[in-house]
Amino acid sequence: MPLIQLVITLIVVGVILWLINSYIPMQSTIKKILNVVVIIVVILWLLSLFGIIGPISGIRVGR
Q1: How many CB atoms are closer than 10 A to CB 17?
Q2: Whether pTM exceeds 0.90
Q3: How far apart are CA 4 and CA 58, in angstroms?
Q4: Beta carbons of 38 and 20 less than 8 angstroms apart
């Protein structure tokens, strides 16, 4: 993935998260949980993208 596409993707995710936080009324705890989940997903995606961890599709939860 080219660097410019990576930066654009991160900017789009950030803007979408900002729009959700600004314009959709939610309890603050739900907003915090949403922010943490999005940040964890983005970090896992970046780690997978740079080859630090294996592909995310290979991760299994449970048995």
Answers
A1: 16
A2: no
A3: 27
A4: no
Amino acid in position 60: R
Instruction: Note the pLDDT tens digit of each residue in 6-57.
Output: 999 999 999 999 999 999 999 999 999 999 999 999 998 899 888 888 776 6
Angle between helix axes 3-23 and 28-49 (nearest 10 degrees) is 170
* Domain definitions of the chain by residue range: 3-55
49/36 Cα distance (integer angstroms): 20
Q: What was the pLDDT predicted at 40?
A: 93
pLDDT band for 59, please (50, 70, 90 cuts). low
Q: Tell me the HSE value of 37 on the side-chain side, using a 13 A CA sphere.
A: 7
Residues 6+ apart with CB under 8 A from 56: 44, 45, 48
